């Protein structure tokens, strides 16, 4: 007989593993010696509170995140994590490329280009794995 | 016997009408006396070239646009047009609210709040129409 | 005999009242009909989790928030709330003006000017109250 | 027998009058009661130090400023001042429209649109004057 | 007997070669395996539609682009391409340095510094070539 | 018998040495061959004019700068210089970590993460020195 995860931290830890996979766990690990409390907050709020909400499926959530990070242009490492997360939750490479191309309209061609180059790296890592 | 639209301008004009509706047409009209060529480019590139591409449905395209514009925080009028466009292509109000809430994670709480207040205005206009 | 607040929501509600005062409560109220869950998350994470952490006093926290919001330039309503919050937790008007002037160095003169004009409005509202 | 202005403040005051005209003087005046020292710094550094440097003519300087402010999207009031300044130093309305249209490529269509709407306002004020 | 280029793609390909030179062609090549359609759109819209418009000479267009990219601060690779493009269309190194210095006023000293360091790299590559 | 520094340049040079230390001097040196006048302006305006103003102590000034640079997300090298500067003027490592964590609320989790990773680098360099 299994139980639902009960704390935000447990729920967030499970969601992070499902969505971001190893890349997400690497981020959490990298915070251990500088800001361990921030690792907890990152699991609890974005993953425990937001991604686990009903009302929007994980596929649409990753479309939103990839678009936002590419448009902002200030979060290249996190964009790569979420391009991988998009693949994890069922987006195809072609769909991710379409999202990034569309950002040319809203955030300019450099934002789209830098997003596409991030995707190129993530896809190559997958192929090499 | 009907034909497919043949020029990018025709294709874009049709896509703008379908996606943005009256709000999009108002933007085009407002350019007439200041930059009429830009109205043409706006129909041709974003709508004729990008939104009509296969490979990502309009619903996912509007998830991406709403997320990007809310995260950037510099395009409040365009965010309102695309919240309305999201409703036009089948997103529910609750889904739009979820996308905007999620932006708190990537662009901060002010970006999410300002996005939610934009949605509140658009939803109220729909209710009043 | 009093108790410590026990939930994040209670702790956040208390912190919001102390720091942002009426302006913060107005933000929470304005979310009631569009995204009530986001009001809860706003009380819990920024106020319940972050502002109540030891290790940085509220005065320094508001210096950081005023600087960040002025530098970003995309959150004018939230900047006004936090200029008022700065006064609530003990910053003087002159100190707030100094923070905003300094933003000219890091985010440019327009960011500093728009921050100073926000401060002018908040100070005038205080004088009129 | 006339003299060259000798202090940075005098040089900046003269440059502000030449470039930004009344709109610039209004900005200086609006700082009088909130941050009079910042008015001095604004005259001294941007106008006394930068705009008066040889090596780039005022026309090219205003092309750069209009492009930057439109691309940033966080400085609409200052963009309007510099669209007017562009006209003051010899840019034509058509050239300003071209600069703003070009920003669609680098900062996205919303940045270009919001810049064009700012130009529309400034041009209408000139026509009404 | 030669002809004018007739398609947007031909016109854009020619403009890209003239303005961005080898650096631009490298960007196009780098898209071949990830988003070949985006390479086409990049040639057609920015270069075929915008840079070839009459009404603003290429020199002024590059002043605008260099200023915008430096001010945004999110497009360092593209800024380097356009610093080189500025040299290609007749801007001097001193003029480019002036544009970048001026960005300190509008986008802050870090934006100007990061732009100047990009210019330093591009100038050194030219000297080494 | 010593004198107070009398020019803005002298005052700025002294302030830069006190606040940014070697990292600041390296920035000045790196400008020597590309834009030596900008090195002078950087000493004169931010350091000679702003940081030496009374009305806000250096500790609060560095809280503001660290927060702004982390929130903007476009100035990673300058953020590292100012994390070191914060330590120089008396902020503790824990206080700097708190400021950066707080930026998750206003600029999103990626801004906070990238700020924390910058701090990790600066702290490691101090430990190795």
TrEMBL record, chains A, B, C, D, E, F:
Superkingdom of origin: Bacteria
UniProt cross-references to Pfam families, sorted A to Z: CMD (PF02627)
Cross-referenced InterPro entries: 4CMD/NDH-1_regulator (IPR052512), AhpD-like (IPR029032), CMD-like (IPR003779)
Sequence ranges assigned to domain Carboxymuconolactone decarboxylase-like in this UniProt record: 36-121
Protein name per UniProt: Carboxymuconolactone decarboxylase family protein
Organism: Pararhodobacter zhoushanensis
Organism classification: Bacteria, Pseudomonadati, Pseudomonadota, Alphaproteobacteria, Rhodobacterales
């Amino acid at each position: 007989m299994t139980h639902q995860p009960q704390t935000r931290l447990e729920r967030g830890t499970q969601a992070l593993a499902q969505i971001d996979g190893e890349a997400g766990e690497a981020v959490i690990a990298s915070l251990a010696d500088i800001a361990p409390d921030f690792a907890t907050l990152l699991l609890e709020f974005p993953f425990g509170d937001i991604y686990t909400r009903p009302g929007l499926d994980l596929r649409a959530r990753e479309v939103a995140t990839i678009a936002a990070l590419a448009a902002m242009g200030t979060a290249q490492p996190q964009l790569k994590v979420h391009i991988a997360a998009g693949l994890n939750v069922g987006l195809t490479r072609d769909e991710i490329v379409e999202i990034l191309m569309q950002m040319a309209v809203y955030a300019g061609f450099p934002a789209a280009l830098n997003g596409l180059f991030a995707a190129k790296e993530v896809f190559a890592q997958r192929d090499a794995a």
